[in-house]
Amino acid sequence: MTESGRVLVVDDDETVRDVVRRYLEASGCTVEVAGDGAAALRAFAERPADLVVLDVMMPGLSGLEVCRRLRRSSQVPVVLLTALGEEEDRIAGLRLGADDYVTKPFSPRELTLRVGSVLRRARMPSVEPVAAEVSDGDLRLQPGARLATLRGVEVPLTSREFDLLAFFLAHPGVAYSRADLLEKVWGWDFGDQSTVTVHVRRLREKIERDPAKPTRIATVWGVGYRYDPVGT
């Protein structure tokens, strides 16, 4: 069983929509489907979902464009469906704020498990118990409210970005490999480690004064990444 919730499934292939819908409903989710990007945006505007399963390759509005437009007003978790071998689409989707992806052809059971994982993490106070509030200089994180502020202004973070930042703040000064972060933040013991790279890049764009010269999230060459507190 996965985490229950309202899921919007967007794919131009009716067979794919039907199979995904049946598996997710069997796991306890309420599912709405859309056959193209425009219909998906209308459906989400009328009844916001807890998670969106979104095919990248669709006629008209592509899945990437739909993801871009969703991110203008919502941090709803997004799981992309991408074609096998289309790495650029996966990376582009992650850069736009997608939380996860599954490559076609895919196992409906795997997709159901991924959806459950993303829903659970979106609802968790943080990746692990931390203080009610964590601060580092002008950066403040409230795990219970899933709220991050920088210099008093809210920082819009996806659920994965929030979890990654919460993990970094809970473990300052410790270097972690991408595989370590994939396991501890994503809960995966295997997977594409470029997911971590893209999320680190997005976090830097949101919390660093100069993302090209980060002072908080440092690259440890040959290892991975380390969070260095800036203090007051």
Descriptive tags:
globular; phosphoprotein; two-component regulatory system; Arc Repressor Mutant, subunit A; Rossmann fold; 232 residues; 40% helix; single chain; Sig_transdc_resp-reg_C-effctor; 4-stranded antiparallel β-sheet
Structural overview:
The modification 4-aspartylphosphate is found at residue 55. Residues 131-229 bind DNA. One of its GO terms (cellular component) is cytosol. This is DNA-binding response regulator, OmpR family, contains REC and winged-helix (WHTH) domain. The chain is built from 8 helices and 12 strands. A 5-stranded parallel β-sheet has the order 2-1-3-4-5, with helices on both faces. A 4-stranded antiparallel β-sheet has the order 6-7-8-9, covered by helices on one side. A 3-stranded antiparallel β-sheet has the order 10-12-11. It has 2 domains: 6-123, Response regulator (Rossmann fold, 3-Layer(aba) Sandwich); 134-227, Arc Repressor Mutant, subunit A (Orthogonal Bundle). It is α/β, with parallel strands linked by helices. The protein has helices spanning 14-26, 37-46, 63-71, 87-96, 108-123, 159-170, 178-186, 194-207, and strands at 6-10, 30-34, 51-55, 78-83, 100-104, 134-136, 139-142, 147-150, 153-154, 175-177, 217-220, 224-227. α2 (37-46) runs parallel beside α3 and α6 packs across α8 (194-207).
